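Run log // design_07
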């Protein structure tokens, strides 16, 4: 029997999260700032909306359809002017 696990989501209408031993993924609407923190490598895609990522002091304005690969240990924070749909894949 396969160890694969499948998940179903309705593309942002409800939060979605799944986690394994080393990797996690989530998709959620955000509107509040995400304060400065460091973590493992992270891939973030903005599905809808806009956001401002500050990564190691450098500012990146992102819009729906854009994404960013954040290296492990980088200090990052986010600001949003309106709700944005984020899709994240990250190492624990």
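design_07 sequence
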């Amino acid at each position: 029997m396969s160890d694969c696990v499948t998940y179903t989501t309705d593309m942002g209408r409800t939060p979605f999260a799944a986690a394994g031993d080393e990797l996690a993924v989530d998709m959620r609407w955000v509107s509040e700032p995400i304060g400065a923190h460091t973590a493992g490598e992270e891939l973030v895609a903005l599905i809808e909306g806009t956001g401002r990522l500050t990564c190691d002091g450098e500012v990146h304005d992102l819009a729906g359809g854009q994404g960013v690969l954040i290296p492990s240990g980088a200090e990052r924070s986010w600001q949003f002017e309106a709700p944005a749909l984020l899709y994240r894949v990250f190492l624990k």
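The chain has one domain: 16-91.
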